[in-house]
């Protein structure tokens, strides 16, 4: 066996393991920065500080930042592997992995009382009822619930997933007397007529948002026709191109360039009298709480074409809204608790949250106390009538 | 610190290698210090525990080997060391489990079930089972006269804390390391083999074990998967645990060689075994030989009645199961393997299916091992039973479980599954690859290392299964 390959292999190994930290120091020095690796000597060596140092070192690595997009691209091109955050369905459809996990994995709705969605929702309903405000809860079906056939290799009975944790939650809320709207079956039906969800985005299409708003409005008007206002809204068609959030999650800019943006047909809502695009009104009798599903087409491009605008159009009244991306389980109620004036004059609160938040909601399902009722608050009914 | 991490590969290892080879002397002390840094990286105060365990065994070893020490004193020192080591293990690893189960039992017997034993969360020091067994074996071997006592506390500390084998083995005996602590050669050949073993282990871990782990996690975390998916899940787990654990051992052995130490191999293509008895000769060899030498043989081994042999086998495997963790699933796993070993012993060290042709024997053994992995991987017994029910079609699959196919049957996972199957059933280990290194092998290793590093940069899922033990 010739001796020469040994120094070569050792040299190669050492070159690799030394070149990365040395090049990192060079990059940092070129930016006039102190070597980040030396931060470890500046902190007390607690487990938390060491973990944080380890994370920071990896995140700051120029080599990782340079190599990762290439590898992600290659994995996608060679193996159709969309990375750790997304799942690839048939026909190039992308899904957000936690949406799939939520449906597939067990979820004990009442396992931790302090973090129980049922308890938090019922408590919120009671808080609102004490102010004579009704509550309508909408667990938003995530993409895999509406397009299970794009993910499942097996045929599904009736094309549906059947009983899921969301159905269980809806049943428990129904038993507790909480008013709910289940959009899943309707969205599954509608997807035959128009795109319910975007191919490479976590969220729904503008058409689905509009149809959902119509369904919710019909449900509200059937119970409380008096809520309807007098503002007339009209719509006008607008086309936008949307680059899906799931494409960004592939973390490969080269893929982002090759996967085209999706054209989305929207209906922008404007006031017939003024011709101005729909805007919220803090004095509306209806408050809408929710997450990024409500942001889509509403405050995002093209504006005033999302669920909120279309619900306002159906109810003929502008709405108040608080939207918190990914935080509809607890954070959005905290925002409300910080602005309790928004509850003044309200008859109804609509609370939307994506179904995966039942399990993965940011900060769980905490009880959020609302400030005490003020004497001047109007009393117009505690239930969705 | 994990071997397959950015911080280890690009900061810790280069710094330690550089300083180690620059030092003219005091290398063992240096290795001990950096091993404490390596270990303390998880939780600095864990180092104190290890120092206590080392100090106790050094003291007891000294008493046992003191000239003129009476047999009673020697025995008492041995018992003190064993009680000290096992006491640490018992408290940190088994206290919560014992308290919870005793409280439950008290409740079943009519008590309140609360407060019989207070239950509190005890942080499990990483790798405590490994270093406790190593330090215990030192004292026992000194008592038995197999090894001389350590020359100094520093030598024993270096043996126990040596970072390559510290947290996930192989479980090294003092007699293997003692002489090397005194004198070991640092050669280019040894370093090259170390590099080769490290690269192969690193690649196995990043390119094979981690993708298989994500498949196994997806299926085991699912609510009532379909039968086919459940089988694929448990096969993925079998590959994950093998390529993960054996990769760690390869990297450990490789790193040790870079520092001049030779430590024995821990795996020998276990999935080609034709019986469970053979499987245990090939799987986690350092644990099975430890259990044999320090438990099975002292219990009488096979030197008494056949019934006693079956009992010994069962007990050893039960305790071997418990060694992995404080959970009924590990006990069930140990009991399952113990009964299979006892059955094969009853059949004259042959399997019940020894009449099958070799591929059949390998296949049946693999299926028996898969069943045991279902127990081992499940978080609790009810999950294990439900999972086995899914595998054998006794439990109906849930509707949403149909979505699992998108996670499992991706081209990437299927390709890795096929590669794992080929490597697992091929009687060729990384040690065989390293024995006769040459240019062509070196030219395979180089891109493999770069590929594994590139893959590591994209993986956030990077656990080592055996750290928890």
In angstroms, what is the radius of gyration of chain A?
Answer: 25 Å
* SSE order of chain B, one letter for each helix or strand: HHHHHHHHHHHHHHHHHHH
Note the main sheet of chain A: 5 strands, parallel
* Uncertain spans of chain A: 375-382
Overall body shape of chain B: globular
Q: In percent, how helical is the residue content of chain B?
A: 55-70%
Number of domains of chain B: 2
How many structural domains can be distinguished in the coordinates of chain A?
2
Compute the number of strand runs of chain B. Answer: 0
Helicity range of chain A: 40-55%
- Strand order in the sheet with the most strands of chain A: 4-3-9-7-8
What is Rg of chain B? Answer: 23 Å
User: How far is it from the N-terminal to the C-terminal residue of chain A, by CA?
Assistant: 88 Å
Largest interface: A-B, 64 and 60 residues
Category from helices, strands and their pairing of chain A? alpha/beta
H/E element order of chain A: HHHEEHHEHHEHHEHHEEHHEHEH
Mean pLDDT of chain A: 88
| % residues in beta strands of chain A | 5-15%
Q: Would you count the extended β strands of chain A for me?
A: 9
Structural descriptors:
heterodimer, A: 385 residues, alpha/beta, 2 domains, five-stranded parallel sheet, two-stranded antiparallel ribbon, 15 helices, 9 strands, 40% helix, 13% strand, B: 469 residues, mainly alpha, 19 helices, 0% strand, globular
